[in-house]
Write the structure tokens for this entry.
Amino acid sequence: MRNTPIVRARRRRRPRVEQAIATPEEPPSWQSLYAQPKECVICGGQFAPNGSTKTCSAECHAEHHKRRRKKINAKYTANPANRNKTNARRRKNYPANRDKINADRRARTAANAHPKQCVIDGKWFIPKGKQKTCSPECSKALAAKGQARRARKWRRKYYATRQIEQNAM
Ligand SMILES: [Zn+2]
Ligand SMILES: [Zn+2]
């Protein structure tokens, strides 16, 4: 359990290309003679690599790290045993940290909240999940619209099939 707030690590800037190139007075080192610009795996931009660096900037590095983490997590949670372990741990920890967990979740939701336009009347609202409409009324209207469309489709198919049958007779 941790009580200290999570402080995001400060981004360290990688030396830019100009800084990485040796000054002309110095004799070129064998490394600089073999140095090749590399392509950033995230943005595809060229940069002077520092060792096995795969990205050009702190931003791309963070993105690369995020993607890697996601891949590793996906692999881990694909195993049901791991999933059970994680869920059991969460269930156990939740009562003790309820307030903090809920506050974090609320903050995350608020940070991700982007207003959306209702597909029925065009009013702006903050969606919950995949919500497409602003109100229960609009939601009903959308469902009715879908039903009418499906019914239309069904009728068209039904009568077309009958037409084919009649033509064959
Ligand atoms: Zn990049
Ligand atoms: Zn609406």
In short: The CA atoms of residues 138 and 144 lie 10 Å apart. Residues 135-168 form one domain.
